[in-house]
Design goal:
The chain has 112 residues and is an all-alpha fold. The chain contains seven helices and no strands. Helix 3 packs across helix 6, helix 4 crosses helix 5 and helix 5 packs across helix 6. Pfam families: GerE.
């Protein structure tokens, strides 16, 4: 309960406690939808675009070792071991957007 709780909320909390219910703060119940930092998410997006660590490092103005460090952290947060696993989990969690069904528009742009 916060200091800003209303009288009715406090009374309800007391009643619920007396009934044996456990009060858990809402912020502990809320699971973040995106556990990644903005930098980790950008690196994940670039991995999904098939960029190599060296390319990512150059474009984001960081060392290749820093990219690898972000990838290690990202893999731990996503519960995966590989780049492929990270990308798959990223799509599964909606961090990378929907999976496109083929890229016919790219093929249509190229004609002889």
């Amino acid at each position: 309960m916060s200091k800003q709780s209303t009288y009715a909320q406090i009374i309800n909390a007391i009643k619920q406690s007396m009934l044996g219910h456990v009060l858990v703060p809402e912020k502990l119940l809320a699971k973040p939808l995106d556990p990644l930092t903005p930098t980790e998410r950008e690196i994940l997006r670039r991995i999904a675009s098939e960029q190599k660590n060296k390319e990512i490092a150059k474009e984001l103005a960081m060392s290749q070792r820093t990219v690898e460090s972000h990838m290690t952290s990202m893999n731990q947060k996503l519960g995966v071991k590989t780049r492929i696993g990270a990308v798959a989990k990223g799509y599964e969690m909606g961090l990378l957007g929907p999976v496109s069904e083929g890229r016919s528009s790219d093929r249509d742009d190229f004609r002889m």
